[in-house]
Design brief:
Layout: E1 7-14, E2 17-20, H1 21-26, H2 32-38, E3 42-45, H3 51-66, E4 75-80, H4 91-99, E5 106-109, H5 115-128, E6 135-142, E7 164-171, E8 177-186, H6 192-195, H7 213-223, H8 227-248, E9 256-260, H9 266-277, H10 286-292, H11 299-309, E10 318-325, E11 329-337
Parallel strand pairs: 4-5, 4-6, 9-10
Antiparallel strand pairs: 1-7, 1-8, 2-3, 6-7, 8-11, 10-11
Helix pairs in contact: 3-4
Length: 343
């Protein structure tokens, strides 16, 4: 999907207290060998701060940086990876009530760690289609602090889960970055990789289930498809989405100043992204992302905010954003930095 006239006007980030991976190793929560091999150095833990309150904080910062009234927002899309409030509640309404917006339309997207690019894809459609939206708010937040999730081991060796939130104001008028292209796809043959053989019915014993994604994936690789074949198919699929976005933006891989993937083991980023694109790891956001932890769908905006604030990208630079989620979902988009904001 080639885009024109859609801009990121501002972003906002909320990160709670940092926690060192080295401390987690000393406490026995994290494996020392995994820590040394992955290169991941830390995470962030929110303790008693709900995901939605972090989303509100990030949204307020994004609106403040935008410099206009919150009532000028015309649409809202929220993405959540894990618990966003009691079952039966509607998370976006909580965020909008806290912000004091008007009675605008809202959506809740459940695409896991792919949620932010999925939300952006939705509002691009709203802005370029019949809805004629001019300004939209995107939010995402997660709090993984629960006995049902092991943030250090529960999602495999490539990730340390982190709490936090990010938000963006998207506009048809102007912004610090212009969206040049965005594409996504679903490799449904890998759906069971994250589901395992668990029932599709609601819990029958009245208690919550431990979220053991690594165990589900291992079961799938044992029974359905080898890990080697799974990784190969994912690599080919993800790269096809990236290449489509590069072509539609009129760019080659060598034109990309920075690649912003989700925060994970640097070896995975080099093998699946940077190597196939012929780019060095220094052109990725990994050196920063490895200190943050994997904040679900918020990773991309957190890293983009860092790149802009620290001057690692400048006007004219092209940035490749890419994320994935269970399903297997993959998205990739290109933005071009138009100006350095005064944040």
């Amino acid at each position: 999907m080639r885009t024109q006239g859609v801009f990121l006007s501002s972003v906002g980030v909320f990160l709670p207290d940092p926690v060192s991976a080295q401390d987690a190793v000393a406490d026995g929560r994290y494996d020392e060998d995994v820590h040394k091999a992955s290169g991941l150095t830390g995470t962030h833990v929110a303790h008693g701060v709900p995901a939605l309150d972090m989303a509100v904080a990030a949204a307020r910062r994004a609106v403040q940086r935008w410099g206009r009234d919150v009532e000028d927002i015309e649409s809202h899309v929220h993405g959540g990876v894990y618990h966003q409030g009691p079952d039966g509640s509607y998370p976006p309404a909580y965020i909008l009530r806290e912000l004091g917006t008007g009675p605008i339309p809202s959506l809740h997207i459940r695409q896991g760690c792919n949620g932010m690019l999925a939300a952006l894809e939705v509002v691009i459609g709203q802005m370029t289609g019949a809805a004629q939206v001019e300004t939209a708010l995107l939010t995402t937040a997660q709090n993984f602090q629960t006995p049902l999730i092991d943030r250090w081991r529960g999602f495999g060796d490539s990730y340390i889960l982190a709490d936090g939130a990010a938000a963006a104001v998207v506009s048809t008028e102007s912004g610090f970055a212009e969206v040049r292209s965005l594409n996504s796809g679903t490799l449904a043959e890998l759906e069971q990789w994250h589901r395992g053989d668990e029932s599709l019915l609601p819990p029958q014993d009245g208690t919550g289930r431990e979220v053991a994604v690594a165990e589900r994936a291992a079961l799938f690789n044992e029974r359905e498809m080898s890990l080697a074949e799974t990784v190969e198919r994912i690599g080919e699929f993800d790269l096809s989405i990236v290449q489509r976005s590069l072509v539609e933006a009129g760019l080659n891989a060598c034109d990309i100043a920075k690649v912003v993937p989700i925060n994970q083991d640097g070896r995975m980023i080099e093998y699946a992204v940077m190597g196939p694109l012929g780019l060095p790891m220094s052109r990725s956001s990994w050196d920063f992302g490895r200190t943050v932890g994997h904040v679900g769908a918020a990773d991309l905006l957190i890293s983009l905010d860092h790149l802009v604030r620290t001057g690692e990208v400048a006007p004219g630079d092209h940035v490749l954003l890419l994320s994935q989620g269970p399903g297997w979902i993959s998205s990739a988009g290109v933005v071009t930095i138009k100006e350095v904001p005064s944040w």
